[in-house]
Every structure is written in C-alpha cells, then in structure tokens.
Amino acid sequence: MDALMMTGPSQGTDRTEVREIETPRPGRGEVTIDVAYAGINFLDVMARRGDAGYAGAWPYAPGLEVSGTIREIGRDVTDLAVGQRVAAFTAGGGLADVVAVRAGFAVPVPDRVPSPVAAAAPLMLTTALLLLEDAAGFRPGQTVLVHSAGGGVGGAVAQLVPVLGGGLRIGTVGRPDKVVPALGNGYDRALVRDENLTQAVRAATGDAGVDIVLDPLGTTMLETDLAVTAPGGRIVLFGNAGGGEQAPLPPAGRLIGGNLAIGGFSVSRLWATAPRRASAGLRRVLGLLADGRPHLAVTEVGSLADAPAVHQMLAEGRGAGKYVVRLRG
Ligand SMILES: NC(=O)c1ccc[n+]([C@@H]2O[C@H](COP(=O)([O-])OP(=O)(O)OC[C@H]3O[C@@H](n4cnc5c(N)ncnc54)[C@H](OP(=O)(O)O)[C@@H]3O)[C@@H](O)[C@H]2O)c1
Questions:
Q1: Which one of 66, 126, 248, 272 has the fewest beta carbons within 10 angstroms of its own beta carbon?
Q2: How high is the pLDDT of residue 300?
Q3: Which residues pair with 161 in a beta bridge?
C-alpha cells in the first residue's frame, strides 16, 4: 500500500515522498481502517520542520485524522465491525491507504455526515469544540478572540460558536490578504496582527475586552492577550505555530490581580492520556455535523502525491480553511 513518509526534518517538500510499505495488521485492541479521506493539519508541518515533540523518529508517517471503513479487527475489540464507517484519530500514519489505530480512537460516523467532512472531525473539529467547551468553558453570549482565524481550526471555532449559543467572534490574521478568508470562515471581525491590535480589539468590544482568547502562537501574543482579556476571562494556549522558544508565563500576582486564567490544550495529548474524553468530543462533533450544524466546507486534494504541496502552503501561511486528501470513496 501507499503511505506518505517524511524522511528527515525539512522546511520544504524535498524530504516528503509517497512510499510503498507493508499494509498494517491490527494488534490487540486495535483496528485497521481503509482510509477514504485523510485530514491535513498544521501539526504535520510542525513534525516536518522537526519541532520537538511531533515526529518521534525518522522516517515519520504524517496524518493524524481519517475517515474510512473498518478493514480488520484485532483481538479484544468488541464494539466495532468490519465494514463500519468510522472517523478516527490516528496518532500518525493517517496519510496512507490503510492505517492501524487503537479501537478507542475510532468512532462510528452517522449516515448523514459525508466522509470528506468526517475526516476533519477527529483532530480539527474536536480541537475546536473542546477548546471552546472544555478548555475555555464557553458560555452563550461570550466574546471569543481567535488567532490564526483564516485556517482550519480557526474556521471550525467560528462555525461552532453559533452552534453553542452564539457570541461575538473576533479573529486575527498574520497578513492583510487573510482578512477575507477569516471573514469567510464566519468571523464577525477579522483584524490583522499589527501594532494597533490591542486598540482594535478593545474598540470592537466597546472597551470591555474579550471573555476568551484561543491562541496557537506560542507566547508571542501573550502580552496582547492579557491586555485585551476582560476580568474573569480565560486565555487558552494551544500551539506554537512559529516554533520558537516560549517565554515564561506571567507571575501569579498578575493573574490574581487581573482576575485572569491561562490554560493549555493539546488534542493529541488528550487522545493519548484521556481517550474517553477525546472520543466523547469526537462523538459530539459527529452528532452536530449529522444535525447539519456546523456547516463545514473542506477542500479536497486529489491524491497523496499532492499532500506535500498543501503542507508547504500551510508552512508558508497560505492555507485557507481545511484540506483533506481523497484516498478512495
Ligand atoms: N493544541 C491542539 O490540540 C491543536 C490541534 C490542532 C491545531 N493546533 C494548532 O492550531 C493552529 C491552526 O492549525 P491548522 O491545522 O488549522 O492550520 P492553519 O491555521 O491552516 O495554519 C497555521 C496558521 O498559523 C499561522 N502562523 C503563525 N506563525 C506561523 C509560522 N511561523 N509559519 C506558518 N504559519 C504560521 C498562520 O496564520 P496567521 O498568520 O494568519 O495567524 C497559518 O495560516 C496551528 O498553530 C496548530 O499547531 C493545535
């Protein structure tokens, strides 16, 4: 079978290739999946760059989320059946014809959910939902500020806020040409991250500040986050897109005095350490999709061989929305 492989750290596409490898068989407690669609994520790019904690070893098989049908079932798996349509978090190796996953990482897909959209659920949509509900404790009517609003996770958050009861959605982007994609994702306001950002956010909220900040930019925006968050608000750090050193968090006194909370979120670590919570999030997302909300548009990529170019687009910050690779179906 074919699988995408990254052979060593690189800033470009030169060390990513489609390789023929042995088709995996399920171990105990595992299933294999005939992949229909595989989601492409910025986390694949962070692995390709060699950021610490992403590619465990080289060659690295990227791909963290898929939809498809159960191909084979390992020992002790009782709640899934061969041929069943599932969406799964894969912990790597998802950009391939077949992938083996822990059975607890695969969740049945309701009939009404198309496979391309289901492939964006285990990582991207589950991240967006759990960021809002679990990590930030979103309540209807709250104001949410999201950095990198033009991309996949940014778009999913914008689509989920109305589903969860609604609230003002302010997105930030790194370049002026990404304002339109962010507004297209559903943001009420899209602001460029320039020296006027603090003022612009405060103006957009009638000087009240925001209740929630969702920030995947390491600690580079933390001072701004603190300056625009209203008392009682929460900042959730969930990535380090630039890959640089992270600064220390502010002293406790500043958080106590400001009535502010800073938290962290990692969906892949949640799948690894609390899989029931992660799979409950995925089930909920698939249920919402079956009910027609959120409405998520994905861009289909024709084959595995096209995936490195999409990784490069994301690496250069040129991505818009969510990309999934069609393997079959
Ligand atoms: N913690 C988790 O569980 C989790 C799960 C999924 C994704 N994430 C994080 O969420 C973010 C969005 O992920 P996504 O898959 O939806 O990707 P994405 O938004 O399509 O791409 C990442 C975006 O990061 C911004 N960026 C900032 N500095 C960058 C740099 N040095 N190089 C490239 N891009 C840079 C760019 O947007 P702007 O310049 O417009 O900001 C870029 O479009 C990523 O940072 C990812 O690591 C975290």
A1: 248
A2: 97
A3: none
Residue 16 has pLDDT above 80, yes or no: yes
Tell me how far the alpha carbon of residue 74 lies from the centroid of ligand 1, in angstroms: 35
Can you tell me whether residue 220 is helix, strand or coil?
coil
Atom nearest to 174 CA in ligand 1: 39
152 pLDDT exceeds 90? yes
CB distance 148 to ligand 1 below 6 Å:
yes
pLDDT value of residue 12:
98
Q: What domains can you pick out in the chain, each with its CATH number?
A: 2-120+296-326 (3.90.180.10), 125-266 (3.40.50.720)
Confidence of residue 187 (pLDDT cuts 50, 70, 90): very high
Q: What is the pLDDT of residues 289-314, one digit of tens each?
A: 999 989 888 999 999 999 999 999 99
With tokens 């390491």, the residue in question is 218
Contact 266 CB / ligand 1 (< 6 Å): yes
State both tokens at 275. 């899989």
Query: What is the mean pLDDT of the segment spanning 98-118?
Result: 98
Helices (H) and strands (E) counted in the chain, each on its own, are 11, 15
Residue 43 CA to ligand 1 centre (angstroms): 8
Q: State the pLDDT at residue 282.
A: 98
Which of 148, 221, 225, 237 for a ligand 1 pocket mutation test, highest count of atoms within 8 Å of Cβ?
148
* Pocket flag, ligand 1, residue 104 (CB < 6 Å): no
Q: Whose CA is nearest to atom 12 of ligand 1?
A: 153
* Residue among 282, 288, 310, 293 nearest 119 (CA): 282
Please state, in angstroms and rounded to a whole number, the distance separating the CA atoms of residues 212 and 234.
Answer: 5
What's the token pair of residue 46? 């962070």
Q: How far is the CA of 170 from the centre of ligand 1 (A)?
A: 16
Asked if residues 48 and 16 have their Cβ atoms less than 8 Å apart, the reply is yes
pLDDT value of residue 303: 96
Identify the pLDDT of residue 329.
74
CB 181 less than 6 A from any atom of ligand 1: no
